[in-house]
Every structure is written in C-alpha cells, then in structure tokens.
Write a structure and sequence with these properties.
about 90 residues; alpha+beta; two-stranded antiparallel ribbon; 3 helices; about 60% helix
C-alpha cells in the first residue's frame, strides 16, 4: 500500500512553523502496522505522529517503572521511607 521509502512532511508548532521532513524505510512489519493504523481512514502522517507519541510515552513509563523498582529494592531508600512513615505516623491526631 505504501512505498518502502516513505517521506513525511509535518509542521509542528515547536518548530516556528517550519516543516520537519523525515524519511525512513518501512520493513514488512512496519508496513503491516501502518496499514493497520490507517485502515480506519486516518491520515498516514497522523497515524505516524500518534505512534511516535505513544512510543515515547511507553518508554517514559518503562523508565519510571524501572526507577521505582530500583528504589523499592534499595535498602537505604526503604529505611528512609520507613523513617518518614514513622515520623508521619507520630503526627496523626488519632
């Protein structure tokens, strides 16, 4: 459905109105994914923008999850959390 070499021109507000052009090659898996994303009539450029934003969001969540797991496994951090919890508990009215 699409050329293997696909060229996008998208304008982003962050770029002072200048168009950003990205050229990339679609392998078979990416081509199938793009076909699926546009089968509802979505524009190719919109589907790709949405996919990029979703991928970046997923990566941020994965990094945050890894950081939380690392902190949860850190004995010094766990001891500090316990000290803070105990201090806060002593401030409760009942």
């Amino acid at each position: 459905m699409y050329d293997v070499l696909y060229d996008i021109r998208a304008t982003g507000a962050y770029s002072s109105g200048m168009a950003t052009s990205i050229t990339f090659r679609l392998d078979d898996e990416a081509r199938r994914a793009l076909d699926e994303l546009v089968e509802d009539g979505s524009a190719v450029s919109a589907a790709i923008r949405d996919a990029l934003v979703a991928a970046a969001d997923r990566r941020r969540r994965e990094r945050l999850r890894a950081e939380v797991e690392e902190l949860a496994a850190d004995p010094d951090d766990r001891a500090e959390m316990a000290r803070v919890r105990d201090a806060m508990e002593s401030l409760r009215a009942w």
